[in-house]
Automatic annotation (TrEMBL):
<dbReference type="GO" id="GO:0003008">
    <property type="term" value="P:system process"/>
</dbReference>
<protein>
    <recommendedName>
        <fullName>TBC1 domain family member 8</fullName>
    </recommendedName>
</protein>
<keyword id="KW-0343">GTPase activation</keyword>
<keyword id="KW-0677">Repeat</keyword>
<dbReference type="Pfam" id="PF02893">
    <property type="entry name" value="GRAM"/>
</dbReference>
<feature type="domain" description="Rab-GAP TBC">
    <location>
        <begin position="520"/>
        <end position="707"/>
    </location>
</feature>
<comment type="function">
    <text>May act as a GTPase-activating protein for Rab family protein(s).</text>
</comment>
<feature type="coiled-coil region">
    <location>
        <begin position="979"/>
        <end position="1006"/>
    </location>
</feature>
<dbReference type="InterPro" id="IPR036016">
    <property type="entry name" value="TBC1D8_PH-GRAM2"/>
</dbReference>
<dbReference type="InterPro" id="IPR011993">
    <property type="entry name" value="PH-like_dom_sf"/>
</dbReference>
<dbReference type="InterPro" id="IPR004182">
    <property type="entry name" value="GRAM"/>
</dbReference>
<dbReference type="InterPro" id="IPR011992">
    <property type="entry name" value="EF-hand-dom_pair"/>
</dbReference>
<dbReference type="InterPro" id="IPR035969">
    <property type="entry name" value="Rab-GAP_TBC_sf"/>
</dbReference>
<dbReference type="InterPro" id="IPR036009">
    <property type="entry name" value="TBC1D8_PH-GRAM1"/>
</dbReference>
<dbReference type="Pfam" id="PF00566">
    <property type="entry name" value="RabGAP-TBC"/>
</dbReference>
<dbReference type="InterPro" id="IPR000195">
    <property type="entry name" value="Rab-GAP-TBC_dom"/>
</dbReference>
<keyword id="KW-0175">Coiled coil</keyword>
Length: 1158
């Protein structure tokens, strides 16, 4: 690889290096001890030294030196091996080879050797070569950032180590890895950081001690760069209970960006699947690579910067220069090309931006390449303007790809030209009314929509064709005054601007237009410019008839969304004349209903009605619809949904901006969440609901031009203007009053219309006059004092705070679930919290590695808190094995299946946390009768089914005799007859039975056998195992006799053949004294010849029979009433949960759990 030139003394170098090739200016050397067959003593010593050194300190075996004649100082400029200890270099191989260094030598001979002879000064030769090498390094560095495949051998080696060290399933894909230190207190541990699609892992082996850390991305609550007393820059990862610091990275910026990307992608995929729409390349997590993450970050910045649709995919970013006629020079910047756009952004922020929808492009042509105009192309648009780009690399391929996409866009959305006017048969989409030099500009009116408007009116005569404010102005009479003259001045300024910078969506967007927007857009141009700035005009032109069809499909349908819309219609600007009649209300209803029909994921959210009302005042109905689409789907992403995640993220960003720009206010108000809650409506309604309308529309002007940045900086300006009042406020209510009074007295002196009050008019009944603030002054202050935030900074802050907001929702869900469950169970709250974490982690592990990924049906943030996380039968079986006290060896899995069937009362194959914990509570803390009742229910339908995996046990065959006397031999030789006790027991149970409790169905003999088998398995390996076996044998025989008594009394002496197959003698001698002949519950002592088949009626026992019988044996009572420790189970579960899942996934595919009867 190429190295940054560094000086080497030849005198010392010759002791360790041997020259292989040389020329006038370059020397190729081999290190002694490498590539020698036998080798001398010196070579062996050098080779041994290199071999014992750590890989980070080894020297490359080959190098090339730049030789300057007449000097004893050489510069090594190329090396054949990775120098891991270097600062900024990028490796292309893991080992040294002669072929590799020869490639660099050949490049020098072919490209530099002949050129150097023209130089007279040796210093010029050295400078020229060093500059070339540095350029090569820069080019390699930029390409290698996105080319992980350039080091496949090294990555493959890291992957093998990652799999061996952490033993994840194959589905856990490694994305990248880094060498770093992990700090444990004040002690650093050098090791390797592995970043996979679902986990952050660290491994260290130092002085015989092995350290492994595994942190799921979904557990990370905060990811930040910080510093400690030892290091100035570290990456801190905060989870629920711990903080971990990582440092000593070669490139900390890169590592932090990759971490942020992985955490963001994983958290949104698993916790915010309500609205998360991943890029197509990231839909399958196992396919995510480091290059994908970098491309995604660049793509998101591109869409946010130009406020383009979410599905717009970036194809290329190229350095170039654009001819800007207003400055009469080429402006340096970057070209961005995507599916349907060509965009340009100057390197100087705000100097010049251009958005060219391919729908507006007529041609893309290459010009002649000259020294003044290197590699130029011309992009011509339909408004008779042309954009000249120069200094484009790989121009031919760029033009070819652009022409291909241009053809596809025009094929998908044919352009409709206006033939109704006789100005020009090829008039552009934006028609022209004013001419300037050679350019023709439109009057902001959509021709393609004009042609379809008449047909739209015929199909949908109810659509309102005009904006509501012009209608009101025509119907009323207003005498011209100074306000109208100021409006005319604004219109004149804007027309002058259109002449110089363009008036279509393809206009040059500069600092000058930002100043015009801050002054306030004229009423007559407001709706049109909103369409251009948001690029809603492109959607409008590309979808003729779309809105009308939506209105037809959606109107007349009644659902919850339409009911919410109807409820809010008359609350939308009720003080404005436009919405005091059916015309405005009907238009608002149609737009909101049509959008809810278009985007059911969002549907309708409060505050959409206020925003849409204002859009309808300045834009036609169809235009207002597309403006609403632009705001909801790309300008305010994730704002309008069930949890308003986007708004909460921006609130959190706003808090950080307050700390940065208004530190005194932040210090005084210890809890900034109060300000965040107050300012939430600022973001959701763009100040429309808390500021007089004529002032708030100026805020909306800035929002459509600058995006969310305008709301952030205006919010900061409002807080700064009220800092003194806020610092003196005693509580949140007083702070709210201070801000509300200020906002209600913001006026717009330039507004030509009559003033319209805000929703906070009830705050304006002041005892003394309150000072008035002009909106133009407030906006100007916001740009001057807080306008330095770039889109890149805002997007970084959003990514950072999205992690916190999503984890905050998770904590809220957890606390609400625990609050509901704690009163209903006896498990301690801290143990419940551990159980919840295990339950959620089990769900997440299935999301990580199982196909198909189950999170969509199982995790639903819109459901009640207790039902947001649910698990299926397989996941329940894992948890049952980890935390249940009723472990029955091989029988445990079968018992888990039956428990799941019992808990799945709604038959959807999923159970929530509350059901899971309620069952565990009975097992750990229930009374004996509650535990026996649960066991009883686990052995009758629906828990026990005909197709139960254990139903084919030998126990189903004829096995037991109930015809022998209930007499058992005792150790002292006495015999106890239980007949009298049995009769009295049945009478007592019948008498004392609670009639209010729903009676459980009786248990058949087959079910009873399974019940006994479960008990037998539960007693295995218990310290009192022998006593328990003897006791259960006694009880089982007693219950068999009870069942026989009930059978005979119900059949009145008649015999039935129905169950005869399942009742068979199995005599046991007093010495055996056990129902089961050995410790295997599947093998039963039976002798068909000894006991002939008997035809009998239905054999059944009830829960009361079983409970009463068990109470006769003290050892059984002790077993079910002994205290059980859940804490030890939870500790083991936390340790073994991952390994159990990995073991289960590594086994050969097992048949699915039998849930066919669910």
């Amino acid at each position: 690889m190429w190295l940054k030139p560094e000086e080497v003394l030849l005198k010392n170098a010759l002791k360790l290096w041997v020259t292989q090739k040389s020329s006038c200016y370059f020397i190729l050397q081999r290190r002694r001890g490498h590539g020698e067959g036998g080798g001398r003593l010196t070579g062996r010593l050098v080779g041994a030294l290199d071999a014992v050194l750590d890989s980070n300190a080894r020297v490359a075996p080959f190098r090339i030196l730049l030789q300057v004649p007449g000097s004893q100082v050489y510069s090594p400029i190329a090396c054949g091996e990775l120098l891991s200890g270097s600062d900024v270099y990028w490796a292309i191989a893991t080992g040294a080879t002669l072929e590799e260094i020869n490639q660099h030598w050949d490049w020098l001979e072919q490209n530099l050797l002949h050129t150097l002879s023209v130089f007279d000064n040796k210093d010029d030769i050295a400078s020229f070569v060093k500059g070339k090498v540095k350029a090569l390094i820069a080019e390699e560095t930029s390409s290698r950032l996105a080319e992980q495949e350039e080091e496949p051998e090294k990555f493959r080696d890291a992957l093998v180590k990652f799999e061996a060290r952490f033993n994840f399933p194959e589905a856990e894909k490694l994305v990248t890895y880094y060498s770093c230190c992990c700090w444990k207190g004040r002690v650093p541990r050098q090791g390797w950081l592995y970043l996979s699609i679902n986990h952050l892992c660290f491994y260290s082996f130092f002085l015989g001690k092995e350290l492994k850390l595994v942190v799921p991305w979904v557990d990370i609550q905060k990811l930040e760069r910080t510093s400690n007393v030892f290091l100035t820059d570290t990456i801190r990862i905060t989870t629920q209970n711990k903080e971990r610091d990582f440092s000593m990275f070669l490139n900390l910026d890169e590592v932090f960006k990759i971490m942020e990307q992985l955490a963001d992608v994983t958290l949104r995929r698993l916790l915010d699947n309500e609205v998360f729409d991943l890029d197509p390349g990231l839909q399958e997590p196992s396919q995510i690579t480091k290059r994908d993450l970098e491309a995604r970050a660049q793509n998101e910045f591109f869409r946010a910067f130009f406020r383009l649709p979410r599905r717009e995919k970036l194809h290329a970013v190229l350095d170039c220069s654009l001819w800007t006629p207003f400055s009469r020079c080429h402006t340096v910047g970057r070209m961005f090309t995507s599916d349907r756009y060509i965009c340009f952004a100057s390197k100087e922020d705000g100097c010049c931006n251009v958005i060219l929808p391919l729908r507006e492009v007529v041609s893309i042509e290459k010009m002649e390449d000259t020294s003044l105009l290197p590699n130029p192309i011309i992009v011509s648009i339909r408004s008779k303007m042309a954009f000249q780009f120069i200094e484009l690399k790989d121009r031919d391929n760029l033009v070819e790809s652009l022409l291909m996409r241009l053809k596809q866009v025009h094929a998908n959305h044919p352009v409709h030209y206006d033939t109704s006017r006789d100005e020009d048969m090829t008039s552009p989409v934006f028609h022209s009314t004013s001419l300037c030099s050679d350019h023709k500009f439109g009057d902001l009116e959509m021709v393609s929509s004009q042609n379809s408007e008449e047909s739209e009116k015929e199909k949908n005569p109810q659509l309102h064709p005009e904006a509501l404010i012009p209608v009101l102005q025509q119907s009323g009479s207003q005498s011209p005054d100074s306000r109208m003259s100021r409006e005319q001045i604004k219109i004149s300024l804007w027309n002058d601007h259109f002449v110089e910078y363009g008036r279509t969506v393809c206009m040059f967007r500069t600092e000058k237009i930002r100043k015009l927007v801050a002054m306030g857009i004229p009423e007559s141009l407001r709706g049109k410019l909103w369409l251009l700035f948001s690029d809603a005009v492109t959607d409008l032109a590309s979808h003729p008839g779309y809105y009308g069809n939506l209105v037809e499909e959606s109107m007349g349908k009644c659902c919850l969304v339409t009911e919410e819309i109807e409820r809010d219609l008359h609350r939308s600007l009720p003080e404005h004349p436009a919405f005091q009649n059916e015309t405005g209300i009907a238009a608002l209803r149609r737009v909101l209903t049509a959008y809810a029909h278009r985007n059911p994921k969002i549907g309708y959210c409060q505050s959409m009605n206020i925003l849409t009302s204002v859009l309808l005042l300045y834009a036609k109905e169809e235009e207002a619809f597309w403006l609403l689409v632009a705001v909801c789907e790309r300008m305010l992403p994730d704002y309008f949904n069930h949890r308003v995640i986007g708004a909460q993220v921006d609130q959190s960003v706003f808090e950080e901006l307050i700390k940065e720009h208004l530190p005194e206010l932040a210090e005084h108000m210890n809890d900034l969440s109060a300000l965040a809650s107050i300012s939430l409506s600022w973001f959701l309604t763009l100040f429309l609901s808390i500021m007089p309308l004529e002032s708030a529309v100026s805020v909306v002007d800035c929002f459509f031009y600058d995006g969310i940045k305008a709301i952030f900086q205006l919010g900061l300006a409002v807080l700064e203007a009220n800092a003194q009042g806020l610092c003196s406020s005693k509580d949140d209510g007083q702070a709210l009053m201070v801000l509300s009074r200020f906002l209600d007295h913001i006026k717009n002196e330039d507004s030509p219309g009559p003033p319209v009050g805000s929703h906070h008019a009830f705050f304006s009944d002041d005892q003394e006059p309150y000072p008035v603030t002009d909106i133009a002054d407030l906006i100007r202050d916001s740009y001057e004092k807080f306008g330095d935030q770039s889109v890149e900074q805002i997007e970084h802050l959003r990514c950072k705070h999205r992690i916190r907001v999503l984890q905050g929702h998770e904590d809220t869900t957890k606390q609400n679930v625990l609050r509901v469950v704690i009163p209903e169970v006896s498990i301690l709250p801290e143990d419940l919290e551990e159980l919840y974490d295990l339950f959620k982690r089990e769900h997440m592990m299935s999301c990580y590695w199982e196909q198909p990924r189950p999170m969509v049906p199982r995790h639903d943030p819109s459901r009640p808190y207790a039902e947001q996380y649910r698990i299926d039968a397989r996941q329940f079986a894992h948890l049952f094995q980890l935390v249940s006290p009723w472990t029955c060896g091989a029988h445990t899995e079968i018992l888990a299946e039956r428990t799941f069937r019992l808990l799945d009362d709604n038959m959807d194959h999923l159970i929530e946390f509350k059901s899971f914990v309620s069952c565990l509570d009975v097992m750990y803390n229930g009374e004996m009768n509650e535990k026996i009742k649960l066991l009883y229910r686990l052995h009758i339908p629906p828990a026990l089914t005909e197709n139960d995996r254990d139903s084919q046990s030998p126990l189903k065959n004829p096995l037991l005799s109930t015809s022998r006397p209930l007499v058992f031999g005792k150790s002292n030789g006495d015999a106890i007859d239980y007949q009298k006790q049995l009769k009295q027991m049945i009478k007592d149970l019948t008498k004392d039975k609670d009639k209010t409790e729903k009676e459980l169905p009786k248990m058949s003999q087959r079910e009873f056998i399974q019940f006994c088998k479960t008990l037998y398995s539960m007693f295995h390996e218990d310290p009192e195992e022998n006593d328990l076996y003897q006791a259960i044998a006694t009880v089982t025989t007693l219950l068999l006799q009870i069942g026989e008594v009930g059978q005979r009394s119900s059949s009145s002496g008649s015999c039935s053949q129905e169950c005869g197959e399942e009742l068979r003698a199995s005599a046991l001698s007093p010495e055996q004294d056990s129902v089961f002949a050995d410790n295997n519950p599947g093998k039963i002592t039976q002798d068909p010849q000894t006991f002939p088949q008997e035809a009998e009626g239905d054999w059944t026992v009830s829960l009361e029979h079983i409970l009463a019988s068990l109470l006769t044996e003290q050892s059984l009572v002790n077993f079910f009433e002994k205290p059980l420790d859940i804490k030890s189970k939870l500790e083991n579960a936390k340790i073994n949960q991952y390994s159990l899942k990995t073991f289960e996934m590594s086994r050969p595919s097992q048949p699915e759990l039998q849930l066919s009867n669910l």
